[in-house]
Amino acid sequence: MYPRTEISTITTVFLSPETVYINKMTLKNLLQSSLIVILLLSIFFSGCIYKENQSVGLEVPAEETNTVVQTKMLGAVQEDDKDVSQIQLNSPDQREWHQLGPYESIDFLGLFNNSPVYICEKDGKKLIVNNGTEGTYYDDITDLRKIGGKTAYLAGKNGTWILVYDNTEIGTQYDIVLSYTEVDGKILYRANKDGIYFLIYDGEEIETQYNVFFDILNVNGKIAYTTLKNGSNVVVYDKEEVGTEYEYSTLPYNWSGKLAYVSVKDNLARVVYADKEIGGEYENILSVNVINGERAYMAVNDEKYLIIYNGVVGKQYDSVQDLINIDWKLAYKAENGRKWVVVHDWYEIGVDYDDVGTLVDIDGKLAYKATKGGRAIVVYDGKEQEIRYDYIDNPVKINGKMGYAAKRDGKWFIVLDGVEMETEYGSIETITDVGGRVAYKALKSGRWILVYDGEEIGNYKWIYSISNISGKLAYIAEVDEGMVVVYHGRELGGQYDSIESVSDVGGKVTFKAIKDGGYVVVHDGKEGNKYDSIGSIKDIGGKVVYKAKKKGKWFLVYGGDEGKPYNCINSIINVAGKAAYGACEDGYIIAYDGREFGTQYRFVWSPADVGGKLAYGAKNEDQFFAVIDGEEEVLNYSMSYFVDVGRETLYVVNTEYMDGDVILLKNLIIYKGRELGKQYDNVETVIDVGGQPAYVANLGERSFTVFNGLEGIKYRKIKNFMNVNNQMVYKAQKDVRWVSVYDAEGKIDHTYKKDGMWIVVYNGKEGVEYENIYDLIVVGEKIAYTAENNYKRFIVHGEKVVSSQYDDAWNPVNINGKLAYLANKGGKLIIVYDGVEIGKKYNDIRSPTDINGSIAFIANRLNGKFIVYDETEIEVEKNYEVVNNFNVVNGKKSYTGLKDGKWFIIMEN
Prior knowledge:
5-stranded antiparallel sheet, mainly beta
């Protein structure tokens, strides 16, 4: 441990070449001043005066100064293409820095109430660090959230759990505390103590009039769940039974802040949404879910299948498969009279195919292979490729472009972005994207090679399981003596008799292998113990988890530790970052987080993570149960679901009005105790935009935004409503197409595609066409974005390209109303801020960020690491290998640093 020191406040800054950069001309001018010469000589003979730092400071060697040296950058001047910035030395900042740590790990959680919050681990314990103050150490901390700008989390304490909110333990300790939510500004959660389950709201244990309740969720700030009454399922919402006119109701859902559920009457099923039946009646309703925020489900009538999505009823088919989202539109394939069709946005874009492969999303475009007339084709973005092949592999995404392997007339091709590249290989298989480059195995001279980015690797009897692990190439290869795993060019663990597929556990290569008649798991090149049998490998909480058998008994191996032995173990799953599984001894039981959970049954099955809670089916004698958080619920079936949905920022209330003899509902916003705006048919997705409420409203068949009481342009539908740089951004359906809308102070901006090129529309005027457009922001009331043509990126601001003088430019950022972006100039990475080049003297520069209206970024040069903020350099101790999470709160700076495998929090006093 080096002594902690600081320069005395009565001395000047020691000008060390390792800590201060001064150009030669500036140094010459300084030396010409006799006063400076005398001063420097006096410093040389007298030495620097130090004093002990009584506070906790950055650790530095005794022979080095730990002063945070700061220099004022007065602007860059170009001379012979070199950075000759005039730099004026400021007096050192007299505020002292202190360091918290060391910790084994630090996770920056963000700013809660304008304070930096971290979760740290030390000596096997966890704690929260809030604004430089360490909280209580617990055995474990999980399920951390921000509620009302304050931290809330579950804490493990002496084998029990308790809820902690704003650094205060709430309620009592329970054997189990389950995932919680917020209702009307108060916390609701379920807990178990001595085998009894409680519903706790605002710190008080609440009873219910029903014996069981399940499918619990929060709908618009009110509690909904399913219960049993007179042997039938009933939905309860806000303490009132709903849908009592039906024979039974079940499975409540939260759809855009309103209650939805499935009900049955006269043997016909329907969906009830906001107290209205929608979508019609069917013999059965399946697969109810939400796609892109819209209602979607599959129904059956007369043995025909159809899709109902966003209130639109699709066509009936013999079967429907591969229901997915492509570019905000529903897509699926369907069989119709022994022929296959592809449906996208309700249009049959592909018909009369003999077969259709897997539907693939490639940068928002639908791609698939199909056979037609005995020939194989690829269909991409609704267009059938002209070239026909004898065989085509499923298309894949390679660095944002479509690629696939194909064969024609005995020759093999790699087709990437429509360009056909003939090869000399006897066969090509398993084309894969690894770090944005093409990888595949190919047959050459009777042996298999791996082709990666055009280069041939290895010479093997066979190659299996090509994969991308942390952006690097991994695969299994069969050599003459056995099998090996190759990762990033080197073999891991040695040769084995057999190897299963390579997987990623915590960012490390992991696989199961047979060696000398036994099974082993190899993780990051290290072999585990040998067993008689090993199950599949899972990643739970970043640890290797699998079941293993030894001497006739099974047990769970979790992070290398062996658990309790059982006669059998099955269905290992991840529930809230911990392992849960079924086990049998005399009967069947579920084990969770290293201990037995609940009671034994004759049989248990299908454990599942539902809303961070453990649920499973069970049976005793002839009675079925759904067991949720350890509580039995008597059922006539074996599945149950939990959904946890947080409330909106503002209250949305229902108001009634009469339409003849029918009572209908309207929505109204209540904000700061008063009515905001007017009543609408529906209000959804309330967000904060610059401290003011903004939301989407529906009236009749139209949707629009409401901000500051002003209604925006009316569309057929609005979705994906969010706040980006204090501007409203959303998808809007205008006529039949969807556009991206950026509502900047009443100016409607969006992008759309025309003849394969992208166009930005700003204030009603179309811009220039580009191959690609992304990073759309608003700077100074003008649209700024990154555009790409011919693989070159550049910055467009308003209607002009502002980065044409650079080789490459990207990542526009709004910093106090001025444009900043990264640029490549002759191989040198710089930042351009408000038209001025910044940081040319650094070897590396990254992460331009707006901190309190000033630019901040992280930079390196040969003699050190720096955080540059508000035109001032903050030198970082050299021993920090990684620096990140820079913040300035109430004028005090903070960041995190990695040193010798340990993390520290560094803050100003």
